[in-house]
């Protein structure tokens, strides 16, 4: 059976996700586009997301935004969300897509320490989203042994 626009009418109906209602069921998932300037969403990002909103996306999920100062990962042009200096660009992005009736979700992430050789020197302790793992983790010589214990412990 071939789908036609007339058989896919539910795509154009609103959808409620938690406390957010979107105008249709067209979603743009997160994509790593690394257009950041000094780890802030750039005007190039905003233009990119504006085009998706113009195209009819009801919900856009931004690329990953670092939730901690050490968690940018290996994305040297990636975005950060933890600093106050990013707020004006987030506001500009929201205003730009809201004009087209598009909602915006921000993908927060932490991938651990953004390492440039400092892990080996012991400069940083490991950061983890789980308190359970953090309590069991010891950074340094015990690193592999500690992870083996964590992985071997039943939930």
Structure description:
The longest helix is centred in the N-terminal third of the chain and has 12 residues, at 43-54. The chain has 2 domains: 14-124, Transcription Regulator spoIIAA (2-Layer Sandwich), CATH 3.30.750; 129-155, no CATH class. The strands form 2 sheets. Strands 3, 4, 5 and 6 form a 4-stranded parallel β-sheet that branches. It has a two-stranded antiparallel ribbon with strand order 1-2. The chain has 155 residues and is of the alpha/beta class. The protein has helices at 43-54, 87-98, 118-121, 131-136, 143-152; strands spanning 15-17, 20-22, 27-28, 59-66, 79-80, 103-109. It contains 5 helices and 6 strands; from the N terminus they run βββαββαβααα. α1 (43-54) runs parallel beside α2.
How would you summarize this macromolecular structure in one to three sentences?
Helices cover 28% and strands 16% of the residues.
* First-to-last CA distance: 45 Å
CA-based shape? elongated
Number of E strands: 6
For the record, the CATH class of the largest domain is Alpha Beta
Say what oligomer this is. single chain
Largest beta-sheet characterization: 4 strands, parallel
Structural class: alpha/beta
Percent strand equals 15-25%
- Tally of DSSP helical segments: 5
Summed up, the domain count is: 2
Query: Helical content, roughly?
Result: 25-40%
